[in-house]
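We store sequence with structure; for instance:
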Amino acid sequence: MNETIIRLKLVRQRINNACNDAGREPNEVSLLAVSKRHPAKSLLTLNQLGVSNFGENQLQEALLKQQQLSKLDLEWHFIGTIQSNKTGPIAEHFQWVQSVDRSRVLNRLAAQRPATLDPLNICLQVNIDGESQKAGAPAEQIFELASLAEGFENIKLRGLMVIPEMSTDPVRQRDSFRRTRMLFLQLIEAGHQLDTLSMGMSSDLEIAIAEGSTMVRIGTDLFGPRET
């Protein structure tokens, strides 16, 4: 517990400092704990410290944790690549899906979202650097996907998610985040009601916050090394 307290304190301090440097309020940036390959007991520990939003990449692993932690009031985000044949459980068991990047997936999520649940919050994943091996829609397809998303009553379009090209050059990192934010603002100018810009991880959260991120996705810096 003590190590987790320290890690969480350090991450929150980094977020606060980045917000201060950018002239923003710390409450403008939310923390998503990326819990893939960490056991349910680790999520429980973080929840006891006030963290309630968790991001998972693997469906079966996430469903098991949800069952184990069913008594807790947690918000689950699916942030991994979405296979079309797994949209049903994702639509049923998550409050957010941050990795929507094609119309087929969007249509299936809308069709399979149970009517008894609140609308499914989604972010469109944009492949801002055009990497052929990476998931995410090209920037030029985002407007079409946004319009499609807003046509469903049980889908709530919240914003964009991005995983930029891996780089240790802060100038290149900043450029990728800046272009994502420009796309985000263009969507708002086009009439889309957006409030979420999910960008920034452990290695680059300061740059992401400086460029307008409203949600950072943090894994190892919160949980420590994964169990083998």
Notes: Strands lie at 30-34, 53-56, 75-78, 96-100, 120-126, 155-162, 196-198, 215-218. Residues 2-21 form the longest helix (20 residues). The chain has one domain: 2-222. The mean pLDDT is 95.
